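Lab manual, section 2.4: Encoding a predicted structure.

Procedure: take the sequence of the chain (397 residues), apply the prediction step described in section 2.3, and record the output as structure tokens. A sample record is shown.
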Amino acid sequence: MKPVLMRTRNLITDLYRQRRIPSGVGKISLRGQNSRQLEPLWSSGSIDDEKTKGVFSICLIPAYLDLQPHQDMGLSIRTGKQTNFGYAIELGDKFNPETYLREQLRGNYRNLRKRISRLESCFDIRYELFYGDIGQQEYDQLMEQLYKMISIRFGERRQRHDMIADWEQILSESLEKIRKGHASLFVIRAGGKPIDISLNYHFGRILYGGLSSYDTNFSKFGLGAIEKTKLLEWCADNGYRFMDFGYGDLPYKKEWGNLVYRFKYLVGFDAGNPFVSLVGHAEYSRLRFREFLKSLGVNRVLRNLKNRVRPGLPVDSSYSEMAAYSRESVEVPVVLSGLREINPEDYPGFPLERAVNDFVYTTTEHRSGIRLFEFSGEPNTFLTLGQRHAEKVRFDP
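Recorded output:
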């Protein structure tokens, strides 16, 4: 086989999602924020790697990872910092999730605990993490639900989800990764029904967030925050060092993370070969210039232009415009004459399940005791009836 002159790799994709070590790398170690001591994660021979005497270029290297080239390759190494920022939680010695969240979230901590308590008191909640073992049927059902949740959620927001473009590949490769302990599926169930699902990747003592979404009918309960809380507890119980939220400048990452880092890039090449050395220096110069342009915001302009002309990724268009509704308290007991009891599923044009869950959240009544009625003389108007409370729900025409 003809040797490849240069290989360019994305470490986030290669290491976490593909479980593949980029060419030229002989050792990977974990570097703590407050410690100079390196913790070995991988060395050549543990995972199949590709060796090349040409140039290897690796971007999106988290700051907490230390990459060393193969010792027998005699490579010259050039590194630099990217404009991309990453966000993570570093779990130190004697890490206590409760103490961490109380100090990190500050005023929002009480709100988080309130939402967890309310979710668990209003529904029959079960938390599951599939790691190392999962059946084919269970996997298929959960991944189907995850895809639907993502489609509905982003359809409502009229946004595209970039990773959905790779869905078929993710679907085909993730089952084996879960069984090998390279990935996991975390699930929150309400009454047996999945309402939050996340696909995460594992490497050493690192948990890296992959795909995640939730049932938007439960929006008031803050399922994303509850999911992160339970995953953090799992990481602490299992001796993990990092829970990485990945790159992307989103508010929740800044709020939850105690580690903000800049990604690095690395170029390695054989300095003894004049032509390879020339190509290696050219690649290093290219990356430096690219990061300079990114610092000026050129990448954001290009991305916005690309989004305007790129066709949208598949979303559930039936949820792109949710019917708005108002809620009005009704005194109990309620006279039910002239009302017809219904199921939310019988009215797909109205987000009745969401309205019921909003009622449950406000009143703290258990979902199993809630009944739904339709007013015969008032179009688009329904009654949500609990054991102690009731309210009228009216949808805009």
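Check your result against the sample. The CA atoms of residues 99 and 389 lie 36 Å apart.
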